Amino acid sequence: MADEINFVDLAALTRITPDSVVEKFGGVINSSFFDASSILATLKQKGLIDFTTAFPGQSAITITELGKQLLNDAHDKANTPFDQLDFTILNQLSAGKRNVQELNQSVNVTQKDFALRIYKLAQNAYLSYDMRNGNVSIALTEKGFLQVKAGMPQAGTDAGTAAPTAQQTKQMMQQGFQQNPQAAQPKVEAQAAQNAAQMPPEKSLAEAEEKIRAGKKRRKMLIIGIAAVVVVIAVVYALILFKKI
Q1: Domain 77-150 has CATH 1.10.10.10
Q2: What secondary structure, in 3-state letters, does the chain show?
Q3: pLDDT tens for the chain, residues 1 to 245
Q4: What CATH number is given for 2-68 in this structure?
Q5: Domains 2-68 and 77-150 share a fold
């Protein structure tokens, strides 16, 4: 009996409040009195609700323990992560399958599991549904449409969260440097060190020493040349003095 529960049952059950009565329930689900009575009779047959009649007053609707358990299951399911079955339902819905029975058959799960999934997707704003004239119509919301276009989320990510593009990554890096330039400084220094390591090497130590020796030799020859000039001048000056004497 539990697997025979469908989404119409669950949708109607969620509309029942402590003040709900049989005579006015049609207005709550946008249906005629006869359509509403048929749905309530189905819920009672499945053990989800019960009636309390006080003649000549109205018949109050109460949710049974089985009905409360179904509502708890629906609440728990709504808090589970988005998965492949959820995406498949959205994908089938985007393809035009808006009839509840047809959509249920396209994913090939039990009516109860399908009902819990539709409730979950509605609670998380991936789709919306409307009860009217005893039937339920389902449609994608903008969030659900965008999720279908984005595809199934990668493992470890929330639904609707896609990996950042290269441009987004670049922008995030630029924003991080502007907000905390000191944190980015080690990266700049590391890059500078890497660039320095790629530069051509300097001359060898032997070449440097040869250059020093050549410089010393030139200086020595220059000193010898200057000394020779001084000696020549001194000899000439001495000869001039000797002739005068």
Answers
A1: yes
A2: CHHHCCHHHHHHHHCCCCCCEHHHHHHHCCCCHHHHHHHHHHHHHCCCEEEEECCCCCEEEEECHHHHHHHHHHHHHHCCCCCHHHHHHHHHHHCCCCCHHHHHHHHCCCHHHHHHHHHHHHHCCCEEEEEECCEEEEEECHHHHHHHHHCCCCCCCCCCCCCCCHHHHHHHHHHHHHHCHHHHHHHHHHHHHHHHHCCCCCCCHHHHHHHHHHHHHHHHHHHHHHHHHHHHHHHHHHHHHHHHC
A3: 555 899 999 999 999 999 999 999 999 999 999 999 999 999 999 999 999 887 778 899 999 999 999 999 999 999 999 999 999 999 999 988 778 888 898 898 999 999 999 999 999 999 999 999 999 999 999 999 999 999 887 765 555 444 444 454 445 455 554 555 554 455 545 555 555 555 444 445 566 667 677 777 777 777 777 777 666 677 666 677 666 66
A4: 1.10.10.10
A5: yes
